[in-house]
Amino acid sequence: GEVGQSSLMSSASLEDAKKAFEKKFREKTKNSWAARENFVAQPGKYTLIEVQLGAGQDHDDVGGLQVDGVDGDKVCKQRVLPCTLDKATQDLVSLIFSSDMFRDAMQTMNIDVKKMPLGKLSKQQIARGFEVLGELEAVLQEQPPQAARLENLSSHFYTIIPHNFGRARPPPINSPNLLRAKKDMLLVLADIEMAQSLQAQKVKEEEEEEVIHPLDQDYALLCCQLSLLDPASREYQLVQIYVTQTGYKLHILNIWQVARDGEDERFKAHDHLQHRRLLWHGTNVAVVAAILKSGLRIMPHSGGRVGKGIYFASENSKSAGYVGCTSKKVGIMFLTEVALGKPYRITCDNPMLCQPPAGYDSVLACGQMEPDPAQDEEVLLDGKKVLVCQGKPIPMPTYKDSSFSQSEYVIYQESQCRIRYLVQLQF
């Protein structure tokens, strides 16, 4: 979109200025300013965008002393304590809370960051975007879909969630694939909003002489423990082989062992499930903070070829396709222990699934290729046997006609997985 016209009008009084504004508001929206709480968007007119104030600015360099505030002649000076995190973890925390990274991610999705700046995005705005996408989905299911209705609803969506297509006309959301892409975009925005809200919760210790380093504060917000692995350790080498054998030529920068608060207890509900695998999950770097804080989630508007669940892969290259990198091509992937139990095997899409069939615990979309099962290595994690792929993908004759080229493992209960490792890669 392009910047619209603006004008500066002189008024004899504040009341005259208010009246002029309310008149212009009605002309542009066909709504009364006084009744804006019950705003109804009108075709061809402007709509009302809800924004919220937010905190959480980047803290690139923190000095030793800060002037916190002035109260009469009193000046409270604070000393920022040294960061307790190792350098790699400092850089990771800085990255996953970086305002520049969030802005880059939004711009990559064609979001207009001037009209929808960081810290001003509201949960209500995202919810309204999902509502419009729900209406679009209903129209797309009609036979044939009404083109004019799709145009109007698409325009309404782009008004609620401002996009920047330059001088190009915003494309109508007129296909299931484009609709899915916009839903995925809103899911990313929701997680960005969560990360920004987390930072806004940081307590300002204005009366303290010593304050915790901002990166330590951000790390504490995640409610998880990140332990950097030694490249010489067996764990690191196991992951390294997994990447090399099943992925593209990606370079591992760092690997952290992850322990999310409460996730181990939740996972114990599935102790009876014996078939367990360490599987890949790729994601946008902009949602990593939200995942570390809240875990891998089944969102109300999520979906895919195998229905509404959490998707994993046995091949790094499969999950790598879902990674959203930084401008420097740094991406983040998770290795997750998944309690698969008895998997229900399928060879064609079934997007309506929301749970495994009776008697099964998960769904396995069988790929034409699969890492050589003979090379799988068994490791013990908290006393449980977990399989880790260590071989190269080989053809699976039984599934040569499958619609899935690579296998996908899907669970429909969030508690059936536990994040074990965070892997930072150079793409």
Describe this structure in words.
This protein is of the alpha+beta class. The protein has two domains: about 50-220, Poly(ADP-ribose) polymerase, regulatory domain (Poly(ADP-ribose) Polymerase, domain 1, Up-down Bundle); about 225-425, Phosphoenolpyruvate Carboxykinase, domain 3, CATH 3.90.228. It is about 30% helix and about 20% strand. It contains eleven helices and 17 strands. Helix 4 (about 125-140) runs antiparallel to helix 6 (about 175-200). The chain is globular. The two termini are about 30 Å apart. The model is unreliable at about 55-75 (pLDDT under 50).
Tell me briefly what this model is.
This protein is α+β, with helices and mostly antiparallel strands and 427 residues long. 31% of the residues lie in helices and 22% in strands. It has two domains: 49-221, Poly(ADP-ribose) polymerase, regulatory domain (Poly(ADP-ribose) Polymerase, domain 1, Up-down Bundle); 223-426, Phosphoenolpyruvate Carboxykinase, domain 3.
Number of domains: 2
Please, how many helices? 11
Largest sheet: 5 strands, antiparallel
Strand content: 15-25%
CATH architecture of the largest domain: Alpha-Beta Complex
Count every beta strand, where a strand is a DSSP E run of 2 or more residues.
Answer: 17
Separation of the first and last Cα atoms: 32 Å
* CATH topology assignment of the largest domain: Phosphoenolpyruvate Carboxykinase, domain 3
Strand order within the widest sheet? 4-5-17-8-6
Write the layout of secondary structure elements.
Layout: H1 14-29, E1 65-71, E2 74-80, H2 87-96, H3 99-108, H4 123-140, H5 147-160, H6 176-200, E3 210-211, H7 214-221, E4 224-228, H8 234-246, E5 251-260, H9 263-267, E6 276-282, H10 288-294, E7 310-313, H11 316-320, E8 330-339, E9 343-346, E10 362-365, E11 367-371, E12 377-381, E13 384-388, E14 393-395, E15 404-406, E16 408-411, E17 417-426
Parallel strand pairs: 2-3, 9-10, 11-15
Antiparallel strand pairs: 1-2, 4-5, 5-17, 6-8, 7-16, 8-17, 10-16, 11-14, 12-13
Helix pairs in contact: 4-5, 4-6, 6-10
